[in-house]
Automatic annotation (TrEMBL):
Taxonomic superkingdom: Eukaryota
Protein name as catalogued: F-box domain-containing protein
InterPro entries assigned: F-box-like_dom_sf
The species this protein was found in: Lyophyllum shimeji (Hon-shimeji)
Length: 455
């Protein structure tokens, strides 16, 4: 055998390394105890660097300005993966004296304008996955800012011929690779007749160029804050309206098809891959003490051709009954996040909140193109609050279960599970918790956007 020709074991190891780098974390961890060779390969920096590069491209890893994955040690790479699952270390420890500690704070300056009828609460920052950019709702419009350069790379300008309009609410879905983001905007116009619209925009983060993909009229409302929530994932978007009838709209972006349905007046809604998730009572059970976690294929809701049909007439593929008779809940919070550990899994949080108590439910959903969606309850528990806390309109829940609540007119961020270690923030209306890194962003009234990263 030529001395320049690799031996078979080296070739095998090289192939195994490439295979492991293309797997998800759960598969790699499963392979670790097979034998010494697998253990050595699966615990090597080469494999973990490949895993973390993939997680970063998919938006599970936020890097702070100046950080590069190749500069991390193997243990630090593993620590980043743990952070994506469990949140910051000082949030997850069982020691009640080990309070969340800020490892770095980034302050962005912005020309926040105080005009008549506009208070600081409309200034709504959201970190984009990956940690390079931040979206900021400001003065009734929307901009995207580079965190590293502290400058605006794009500002929304409507292509429609409206004389007056504002962006009332927005959300985003990062495209694989982090080079572009899909934005869903809830817009209110102030013409002779006030109307609501949904617009879907694709923003190229490298060039700052935006393309409007869809503009649809949304249901009319008597409120000037017409949207309860807006969500987008993949090819589908939903918008829940502020109405007594539980009105919401489902849209397929690629076709432009949409439907308008109604449910009970108290609910929250979210999207997982090709499915709509809703928590809340069915219409006949509003006062029964029972709620449901229900899931429908997104296409089934879009295909409903009866306008303002009751959601209860469409059979869900998942229907889990939740007993909330012991808590007089005033709000329902729902959040779903793809799992960093497995390509076919997501975690769903459902929170039923009252001033002095709340109920928390955690579920795991598994899906694939060839299998029926299955949902498994993971845990549930009640929380008795020592102080009056309540869910806020538009509050966020991270993958690890950190949530922001009102507490005596200030904002408190605390983990839903484990030791109650509240982090108290100034009295700002909008706080965004990064889904996986646990970074917190909020805007102050003195022209600053604050981003806190935690140990």
């Amino acid at each position: 055998m030529s001395r320049h020709k690799p031996s078979m074991p080296v070739l095998v190891q090289d192939i195994l390394l490439r295979i492991l780098c293309s797997c998800d974390i759960t598969t790699v961890l499963t392979a670790t105890p097979v034998n010494r060779t697998f253990h050595a390969l699966a615990t090597s920096k080469y494999v973990w660097l490949g895993l973390l590069f993939d997680l970063h491209r998919r938006g599970f890893i936020d890097l702070r300005p100046g950080q590069r994955l190749k500069d991390f040690s193997k243990d630090e790479l593993v620590g980043l993966a743990k952070r994506a699952v469990h949140g910051p270390r000082t949030w997850a420890t069982s020691d009640p004296n080990d309070l969340p500690a800020i490892s770095r704070q980034v302050v962005l300056k912005n020309n926040i304008q105080r005009v008549a009828g506009v208070l600081h609460w409309v200034n709504d920052p959201q970190l984009l996955p990956g940690g390079r950019f931040l979206l900021f709702q400001n003065r009734g419009t929307l901009e995207c800012r580079s965190i590293i350069e502290d400058r605006s790379i794009w500002e929304y300008k409507s292509k429609a011929r409206w004389t007056s309009s504002t962006v009332q609410m927005y959300t985003s879905d990062m495209i694989y690779g982090g080079e572009a983001v899909i934005l869903l905007l809830g817009i209110r116009t102030y013409e002779s007749e006030r109307k609501n619209f949904l617009e879907v925009v694709r923003l190229d983060l490298n060039t700052g160029l935006a393309t409007s993909l869809l503009l649809k009229a949304a249901p009319d409302t008597s409120y000037d804050n017409p949207f309860r929530c807006v969500k987008v994932r993949g090819d589908f978007a939903v918008a829940a309206m502020n109405s007594q009838d539980g009105i919401f709209m489902t849209v397929q972006i690629s076709t432009g098809n949409s439907s308008i349905l109604h449910s009970s007046p108290v609910f929250d809604i979210d999207l997982i891959t090709d499915h709509v998730v809703m928590s809340g009572p069915s219409a006949p059970e509003v006062d029964s003490g029972h709620c449901h976690l229900r899931i429908w294929p997104s296409r089934a809701l879009v295909a409903c051709d009866e306008e303002y049909a009751s959601l209860d007439t469409i059979d869900p593929v998942v229907n889990i009954t939740i007993d909330v008779s012991s808590v007089s809940y005033r709000s329902v919070g729902l959040a779903s996040h793809l799992s960093p550990l497995s390509d076919s899994t997501c975690i769903i949080w459902a929170v039923f909140s009252a001033p002095s108590s709340s109920f928390v439910y955690k579920y795991r959903a598994r899906y694939s193109p060839s299998q029926v969606l299955s949902v498994t309850p993971l845990s549930s528990w009640g929380r008795q609050e020592n102080v009056r806390r309540r869910a806020r309109n538009g509050f966020s829940i991270s993958f690890a279960g950190a949530v922001d609540l009102w507490e005596n007119e200030n904002v408190t961020v605390l983990p839903l599970a484990g030791i109650d270690k509240p982090l108290r923030l100034p009295a700002v209306e909008r706080v965004h918790i990064s889904a996986y890194s646990g970074a917190i962003a909020y805007a102050t009234g003195d022209l600053r956007i604050i981003i806190n990263y935690y140990e």
